[in-house]
From TrEMBL, chain A:
It comes from the Bacteria. Residues 41-170 form the Beta-ketoacyl synthase-like N-terminal domain. GO terms for molecular function: 3-oxoacyl-[acyl-carrier-protein] synthase activity. This is Beta-ketoacyl synthase chain length factor. Keywords: Transferase. Gene3D superfamilies: 3.40.47.10. GO terms for biological process: fatty acid biosynthetic process.
UniProtKB/TrEMBL annotation, chain B:
The keyword Transferase applies. GO terms for molecular function: 3-oxoacyl-[acyl-carrier-protein] synthase activity. The keyword Transferase applies. Signal peptide: none annotated. InterPro entries: Beta-ketoacyl_synthase, Ketoacyl_synth_AS, Ketoacyl_synth_C, Ketoacyl_synth_N, PKS_Beta-ketoAc_synthase_dom, Thiolase-like. Residues 1-392 form the Ketosynthase family 3 (KS3) domain. Belongs to the thiolase-like superfamily. Beta-ketoacyl-ACP synthases family. This is Beta-ketoacyl-[acyl-carrier-protein] synthase family protein.
UniProtKB/TrEMBL annotation, chain C:
Residues 2-83 form the Carrier domain. This is Phosphopantetheine-binding protein. It comes from Christiangramia sediminis. It comes from the Bacteria. The keyword Phosphoprotein applies. It holds the Pfam family PP-binding. NCBIfam families: PRK09184.1 (NF006617). SUPFAM superfamilies: ACP-like. Gene3D superfamilies: ACP-like (1.10.1200.10). Keywords: Phosphopantetheine, Phosphoprotein. The keyword Protein transport does not apply.
Length: 352, 394, 85
């Protein structure tokens, strides 16, 4: 099987993409974090842009930037993971329909409510007639897209794959997550997320896209080794599952240099991470990212962005560290993420 | 042996609650189109392919406790997979069984039902997570104790066709030994009003490929297949094989298909190439054929581009079931496997006149015919086009 | 320019999210679709809704829209002749 290299990356999140260079991360005092606005007009046609929800804008923007960096015009496949899809348009059509009691409705928001709107719009913008897939499985939506990337790469004619994750917030539906106790009741500062001992987390929107290829370039970031999806697992079974995953990739815990964990400050489910932090990865450099960019169903794509960046730049900014261990030459990075104790994902990346 | 073995299937739709009843409806031309009775919509004059079982009736049939939080798509999915399981060699699915489900709207039926309840009624909040398609897949997985590789594909009307394709690739690559693939979608006010706002719903029974066709009927269904690696077969009956698949994007318009049917053309070409077949090997086509002006013309053009003046027998079964959106690909995969097994071509209902632009006419009556190779098309919003090829197990 | 023409331009800008556009930038005889304003078939569906909502005109066949939505002038003419509100 051919190798898979990460040749272009781009992310939009509540933090600046220059977070490795900037001293201070952005601080939010509310529990819903929106993604930073970008100069969308600079790379998206304004007649297309006028109807786009945040998810579509973020997804298309990141896609074009990642492809540009990898010097790819049209990829052979477009793979998108989005757990909640185009919520803003879904909400718009839903509320119009309910308020008008199924009256006269304008179709645009319905058209754009479909989960594959982001993938379809990227294809439309790039005029890409290739394979196009959208996965929507809660917190393993992006992992599912990565898994498909491995499958598509098995076809020898595949030269380039665009893969990414994106999720947006919306007024009512994100409000429902609050009622469902997914969002903390008391407002906290994002930087205090790991001190919090209450239920729920901080919810956000983000996108991160990547240009993958079987060919390495001088500018490549890292190698994407493997991904695994586990729908449901007891904490006691986690260690052996990770060991098996690493073994399958001819490596072991001792060779892992850093582990990126999806801790989100939800006292009900963070013990999955604590088990690893105090156990098999005790002596490893441990990183978190949700205190900076919040939680959403596609946010493991941000972790993938972070790992790519760390492996290329050979440095780990202090702000991401969960413990005091250093890692001077990161070579192998493992990402572990879950949401509400379900939909666990493992991703392995390696330096070049 | 070429292709991935299909070793089980289960289905529920407006024309039957199991494989047998479904087959009889197809054979005797009995459609499942009616006016909405279960769906609490104002549009009682729009024909739909509705399964005449309420959620509580389905729950009772499945022996679920009253306080459960299954969506309708989950109930239908479980119903179909139970049939698959009962006809399989397993008492319960082995632990390493994967599950890939396709759906367009998942559990949005619960959101539209309880939208105004969540704020003041904590009891209903169990449905908040139900909105997102992954939830429905998880609930089905939970029911059958599936804990491993589970995911959802949502590419509108090609969702479950794509789930079948991915499942086949997972087995081919050795990542899974066994996987349940297919999809489930229920009727909702959201989709009925959405398609109505696009002005593509017919007020009559849909007439795929007819010159006077004026829109589609929505439907609901769940259909699932079991795909297994060669090592798992051990003398089990193989119902047929997934030997080709292809997905391509029309990259033309958010909802409409291109005039030259480019996406469909690419998807069919890829599927033929994957199966290593030529156009003359296709015995029968289960067309996407929704009954809208745009889809049927675009698909017909694509068929002519691929097959020239030798377009094989083809039929759209949407006149039986309505367009079951994300479930359609799996439903029609099952129809395709039935056609191969039984040696039967199922008719394209309500057709009378060829469309002027192409002059193509589908199969209009039930016919016996030896079928070795079937092509099944599924096209969705966002330009998503998928073609699957099923072959007789030799 | 009649009030109806201005009213139409305002609602088109609003309904179709033409955020950067001013009423004065749309000519009465300019093509709304294709090489003119650049509207597409999704906009056409929105305009059908606009006719029904604001002027009580129901188009039974979406294909009728092609001629009616040629320009602001043709739209205004059609509305004058057929409006029920």
């Amino acid at each position: 099987m051919s190798k898979i290299y990460i040749n272009g990356i781009s992310s939009v999140s509540p933090q600046s993409e220059d977070i490795f260079e900037e001293e201070n991360p952005l601080v939010y005092k509310e529990n819903t974090l929106t993604a930073l606005d970008q100069d969308y007009k600079s790379i998206i046609n304004s007649m297309m842009l006028r109807r786009m929800s945040k998810a579509v804008k973020m997804g298309l923007y990141c896609s074009k930037k990642a492809l540009l960096e990898a010097e790819v015009e049209i990829p052979d496949a477009i793979l998108v993971g989005t757990g909640q899809g185009c919520m803003q348009d879904t909400e718009k059509f839903m509320t119009n329909m309910l308020e008008s009691e199924e009256g006269l409705l304008s179709p645009t928001s319905f058209i754009q409510s479909t989960h594959n709107t982001v993938g379809g719009q990227i294809a439309l913008d790039l005029k890409c007639k290739g394979y196009n897939m959208t996965f929507t499985q809660n917190s393993v939506s992006f992992e599912s897209a990565l898994l498909d990337a491995i499958l598509q790469m098995e076809d020898e004619s595949t030269q380039n794959i665009l893969v990414g994750g994106v999720d947006e917030t919306s007024q009512e539906f994100t409000g429902f997550q609050r009622l469902d106790a997914q969002i903390k009741k008391e407002n906290i500062s994002n930087l205090d997320l790991y001190k919090s001992e209450s239920s729920g987390t901080i919810i956000s929107e983000s996108a991160a896209f990547f240009s993958l290829a079987p060919e390495k370039k001088a500018s490549s970031y890292a190698e994407f080794k493997d991904v695994e999806i586990i729908n449901s697992i007891e904490i006691s079974g986690l260690n052996s599952k990770i060991e098996l995953f690493l073994k399958r990739n001819n490596t072991s815990v001792s060779e892992i240099d850093a582990v990126i964990l999806g801790r989100n400050g939800d006292a009900r489910f963070d013990h999955y991470y604590e088990e690893l932090q105090n156990g098999m990865f005790l002596a490893k450099c441990q990183l978190g990212f949700k205190h900076l960019v919040g939680e959403n169903n596609a946010v493991s794509s941000y972790a993938f962005w972070l790992a790519s960046k760390i492996l290329k730049e050979k440095q780990i900014p202090e702000i991401f560290k969960l413990n005091t261990l250093n890692c001077s030459a990161p070579g192998k990075v493992l990402i572990y993420n879950q949401y509400l104790g379900r939909n666990h994902g493992l991703i392995l990346l390696q330096s070049l | 042996m070429k292709g991935i073995a299909v070793t089980g299937m289960g289905i529920i739709s407006a024309i039957g609650r199991d494989i047998e009843e479904t087959h009889l409806s197809l054979k005797y031309g009995k459609n499942g189109i009616s006016f909405p009775e279960i769906l609490p919509t104002k549009h009682k004059d729009l024909p739909v392919g509705e399964i005449k079982l309420s959620n509580s009736e389905l729950s009772e049939l499945l022996n679920l406790p009253e306080d459960h939080s299954y969506t309708r798509a989950a109930l239908l999915g479980i119903y179909a997979i139970k049939e698959l399981l009962e006809n399989s060699a397993y008492d319960q699915f082995p632990e390493d069984t994967g599950f890939i489900s396709g759906t367009s709207i998942g559990g949005i039926d619960m959101t539209e039902k309880h939208f105004y309840d969540y704020k003041n009624n904590p009891e209903k909040r169990k449905y908040i997570q139900a909105q997102h398609p992954g939830y429905t897949t998880e609930k089905i997985a939970e029911y059958f104790g599936l804990n491993g590789m589970i995911t959802t594909i949502s590419t509108a009307c090609s969702s479950s066709a794509n789930a079948i394709m991915m499942g086949a690739q997972m087995i081919e690559s050795g990542k899974l030994m066994r996987v349940i693939v297919g999809g489930s979608d229920c009727l909702t006010k959201f989709t009925l009003n959405g398609f109505n706002s696009l002005k593509i719903l017919s007020t009559k029974n849909s007439r795929p490929f007819d010159n006077a066709r004026d829109g589609l009927n929505l439907g609901e269904a769940a259909g699932y297949l079991m795909l297994e690696a060669e090592d798992c077969i051990n003398g089990k009956t193989v119902l047929g094989r997934v030997s080709g698949y292809g997905n391509a994007n029309d990259a033309f318009h958010q909802t409409a298909s291109s005039e030259n049917g480019e996406g469909a053309f690419q998807a069919i070409s890829k599927a033929l190439k994957k199966a290593n077949l030529s156009t003359t090997d296709i015995d029968f086509i289960n067309a996407h054929g929704t009954g809208t002006k745009n889809n049927d013309l675009s698909e017909s053009v694509a068929l002519k581009r691929i097959f020239g003046d030798k377009v094989p027998y083809f039929s759209s079964t949407k006149g039986f079931t309505g367009h079951t959106l994300g479930a359609a690909g799996a439903v029609e995969a099952i129809f395709s496997l039935l056609a191969i097994q039984k040696g039967e071509m199922f008719p394209n209902l309500n057709f009378s006149t060829e469309m002027l632009e192409t002059g193509l006419g589908p199969v209009t009556g039930f016919q016996k015919k030896n079928i070795n190779t079937m092509l099944s098309n599924s096209f969705g919003f966002g330009g998503n086009c998928t073609s699957l090829i099923f072959q007789r197990n030799e | 320019m009649s009030d109806l023409h201005t009213e139409l331009k305002k609602s088109i800008i609003e309904q179709l999210n033409l955020e950067d556009m001013e009423v004065s930038e749309i000519e009465n005889d300019e093509h709304l679709f294709g090489d003119g304003l650049g509207l597409d078939s999704i906009d056409a569906l929105e305009l059908i809704v606009l006719l029904e909502k604001d002027y009580g005109i129901k188009l039974s066949d979406p294909n009728q829209g092609k001629e009616i939505f040629n320009s602001i002038n043709t739209m205004a003419d059609f509305i004058e002749k057929n409006r029920t509100r």
